[in-house]
Specification:
Blueprint (H helix, E strand, L loop, with lengths): L9 E6 L2 H9 L8 E3 L10 E2 L1 H4 L9 H7 L4 E3 L3 H16 L5 E5 L2 E5 L10 H16 L3 E6 L2 H7 L8 E3 L5 H6 L11 H9 L5 H5 L3 H8 L2 H8 L17 E11 L2 H21 L4 E10 L4 E12 L2 H12 L8 E11 L16
Helix pairs in contact: 4-5, 10-11, 12-13
Length: 360
């Protein structure tokens, strides 16, 4: 007989409009008003939007100009990342009162494995309710949560009753829940794969589940097997408390579009300096340097080079980025430049954690 598959009790906690909510909490005059963190009505990109602004179609990654068109009364505020980090630490401290198996995805969301927890509470649903209540009482912000048997399903569930809500997908509900999802919701299905699946008549999880593993591997390569198991609720990805950093980056959006490579060199020098500071602070180095270029029409281009040795020095970062800058001619004026470092010395081999099946 084969061993039973691991079944865990996973909570995905996602703060509601985190950056914007912090700004509204700290400044009562902003409460109830459409708010965008980052960007401006002249330049830049929206980092986060309050729910009042989202009603007008304002979203993160949208240009400030478009956001203002969508919502003429939109208020822009500058991001305060140190404040967001401070609040995030308070929230994570609450998480650790329940379990040490906490995997932060960003400042505003994390996975918690509460299969075995410090409170001895057998109900992941009740733990999620208690955590959300504590965040509201002790920090002053609302959070949403998804609860299920693995990270993939828990993350999807946390979106269902936002803001300030939660949803539990019990073990016996997982497969029917996944069958009803649009395939674009499945982890690993990007726009290209989504369109390809649509062409094959695969629109929902139920459609995906009807295909054999051989069919999926034939048409979607190695990822086919991943989709086959995922739609059946089979995912062995454990909550990793020490999540490995895979990339470190620094970038800057300019007030005026740049048309000369000479001016771009000056900006790249500053960006390389900032990136080097971050790397050396955390004792990180890497081999693959990527130059990110965003043009005035918002199209984006990346150029990369992998070195035979690990680097974190500002000089080497800048020289390689400069080399990539001149690799080919610019197709338009440039509004943003960035440098990122991948293939880091922090990457470690994955381990598989297996647990016995028991009541959810």
């Amino acid at each position: 007989m084969s061993e039973p598959l691991p079944q865990r009790k996973i909570i995905h906690v996602d703060m509601d409009a985190f950056y914007a909510s912090v700004e509204q909490m700290d400044n009562p005059e902003l409460r109830g008003k459409p708010l965008a963190v980052g960007g401006s009505e002249v330049r830049g990109v929206v980092s986060a939007a309050s729910y009042e602004a989202r009603k007008f179609g304002v979203r993160s990654a949208m240009s400030g100009i478009q956001a203002k068109r969508n919502c003429p009364d939109l208020i822009f505020v500058r991001p305060r990342f140190e404040r967001y980090k401070e609040i995030s630490k308070q929230i994570r401290k609450i998480f650790h009162d329940y379990t040490d198996l906490v995997e932060p995805l960003s400042l505003d969301e994390a996975y918690l494995d509460v299969t075995q927890n410090k409170k001895g509470n057998p109900s992941a649903t009740l733990i999620a309710e208690e955590i959300r209540k504590r965040i509201f009482d002790e920090v002053g912000l609302t959070a949403s949560a998804g609860i299920s048997v693995n990270k993939f399903v828990a993350k999807i569930a946390s979106d269902y009753n936002k803001p300030n809500g939660q949803k539990t997908i019990n073990p016996e509900e997982v497969e029917s829940f996944l069958e009803g999802l649009d395939v674009k919701k499945f982890y690993g299905v990007g726009k290209v794969t989504q369109e390809k699946m649509y062409q094959h008549g695969i629109f929902t999880g139920k459609d995906l589940k009807s295909k054999s593993i051989e069919y999926l591997e034939e048409h979607f390569g190695k990822s086919g097997g991943h989709y086959y198991f995922l739609v059946r609720g089979i995912s062995n990805s454990a909550v990793k408390p020490n999540r490995t950093t895979k990339s470190v980056a620094a970038e800057h959006t300019f007030n005026t579009n740049l048309t000369s490579e000479i001016f771009m060199e000056e900006r790249l020098d500053r960006i390389a300096k900032e990136l080097s500071k971050r790397l050396q602070k955390h004792k990180i180095s890497g081999k693959t340097i990527t130059l990110k270029i965003k043009y005035s029409d918002f199209t984006q281009q990346t150029r990369s080079k992998t070195l035979p040795y690990f680097v974190s020095d500002k000089g080497l970062l800048f020289e390689t980025a400069k080399e990539l800058l001149y690799q080919e001619k610019m197709k338009d004026s440039v509004r943003l430049l960035g440098i990122s470092l991948n293939n880091l010395n922090t990457e470690i081999k994955k381990t598989v954690v297996v647990q016995l099946r028991f009541e959810f």
